[in-house]
Amino acid sequence: MKKILLVAFIFIFCNILFSQVLNDNLSKIGAKYAEKYMQPFTDGLGIAFNSHFIDGRMQSVGKLPFETNLYAGVKLSAIALTDEDRFFDLSFTDSILVGGQKFLAYYNVTGAPTVFGPTTPAVAKGYYYAAGVQIPAPDLTLASGIVDTKFYPFIIPQIGLGSFYGADVIVRFLPRVNLSNYGDLGYSGVVFRYNLSYLIRGIPFEIGLHGGFQNFSIRNDDGVKYFDANGYVAGLQFAKKFPFVTIYGGGQYETFDLELNYNYRNPSTNIVVPVSISQKSGANFRGVAGASLTILTMMANFELNMGKRFLITAGLGFAL
To answer: I need a surface site. Which of 8, 40, 175, 283 has the fewest CB within 10 A?
Structure first.
């Protein structure tokens, strides 16, 4: 059962990034290197994480305070990755032990893989000074890519509940489950939306406001979070409904923060150093244009997201 749940989490959160592979790779690199190694993942996860909240599913103004507006389905995203997302160059320093004496070594690595790069480990070349003489340092084997890909897929379940006097809620949730050696994972999110058409009568389309919060985290056996991702969104959306088809669009302000805590083991001195890094996604605003098709209770939608990165998203589910 745990293996089945692990596969489900891996599938939803993009391949094997939250498996033991990530933890093992991070243990080989210091903070400065980890920031470069993880940043493309942080950017991609933030963009995908904050998607699908502009979907045109605002209930039209009716005579009753409560109108059925239910949805259950999956949302899909695909981000094209550039070479800058997959490789990086870096100069950094680290301690080495030579003949029982500690020295500061100066390392350089070129074309090192990020989490989305090739699965061959990077090797850094360097040097150190002893008695004023420059001496070649031992090569330093670093982290490999986890999944060698040019596309970042993201799939997540989503539920919509409403509406009451124009208000509805979008819920994302996966139960917190202990996955043996892979940690304790959990995900939850809620976004509230209000259809302003309930206040502004007579306009020929729906207009709404939305805002909310999401969290995805991994905890160790002591209950301490070593991976903690948080996203916030707020936006304005419009929708025009026709028989079977809805055309919609809008704009959204968003933030995404990732905090990562792990232990780096220096391969030369064998000293374990606690590392804590905090990253933000570079995407803060997006415009969305999309359309949905509803036949009986089946609903499919397709969207174009325009912001820091161009993103194609889609969804499939049941709607009432």
So the answer is: 175
Query: Residue 8 contacts by C-beta under 8 Å, 6 or more apart in sequence?
Result: none
Q: Which tokens belong to 114? A: 């990020």
Phi first, then psi, for residue 297 (nearest 5°) are -105, 0
User: Tens digit of pLDDT for each residue in 191-226?
Assistant: 999 999 888 878 889 999 999 999 988 887 777 788
The token pair that represents 184 in the structure block? 């304790």
Structure-token pair, residue 316: 């499939």
Is the pLDDT at 143 greater than 90, yes or no? yes
In this prediction the pTM is 0.87
Q: pLDDT value at position 3?
A: 41
Please report, for residues 35, 105, 140, 165, 281, the alpha-carbon distance to residue 108 in angstroms, rounded to integers and kept in the order given.
15, 10, 10, 61, 26
For the beta sheet containing 101-113, the strands, ordered from the edge strand earlier in sequence to the opposite edge, are 87-98, 101-113, 123-130, 133-141
* Contacts (Cβ under 8 Å, ≥6 apart) of 57: 69, 71, 160, 168, 239, 246, 292, 319
Distance CA 312, CA 314 (A): 7
Is residue 192 within 8 Å of 167, Cβ to Cβ? yes
Q: What values do phi and psi take at 39, rounded to 5?
A: -55, -45
What's 44's DSSP letter?
H
